[in-house]
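Consider a concrete sample entry:
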Amino acid sequence: MNKTKKVLIVYGGWEGHDPCGVANVFAEILEKENFEVTKSDTLDVFLTDLTKYDLIVPIWTMGSLTAEQESNVCAAIAAGTGIAGCHGGMCDAFRNNTDWQFMTGAQWVAHPGNGKVTYEVNINKASSSSLIEGIDDFTVTSEQYYIHVDPAVDVLATTTFTYPGNHTANGKVLVPVAFTKRWGQGKVYYNSLGHNRYIFDIPQVREMMRRGFLYAAR
């Protein structure tokens, strides 16, 4: 009989990203996959034994970790606990914590046009990952994230960044939307979509996150 996997959802930070609403959506997805879900709205949970969880899901934009909190969560991922998250809740979570950024694989730097940009998400056809099997390109209207990315990541989906502004002097740029990477024994999954809970009403976005959770979990 398979052991029930345990997931910790840590939510809070900037309210503009609807952390509670996104946490509820993710809990629903994970409970349907038979995860035992624990939710916490305090970063002090990062001072506890995190290795007892098979997966950590951060939903915390623009916060700050103490050195001990950062060290403990990075060590847990290195020991085999997975981490999976989206949007600013994971890769704009702790701007001053560079070990967190190193571990998660990216850091948000801009979203010109804010939440009213309509753009295409292109599945990386060159990837053989089962995480994107059967998913076609799709269009969203949301924030188009420009992220600085670890060159070690395995890119699953991209967007072409062309929004008017100073950056267009560089021409069209493919920016990752979803990727995976490894951190020690742990697996990392990130998806830049997720400005609020409603984007997970889009079937492709919801399915990408579901698969990402299952991939990253120990």
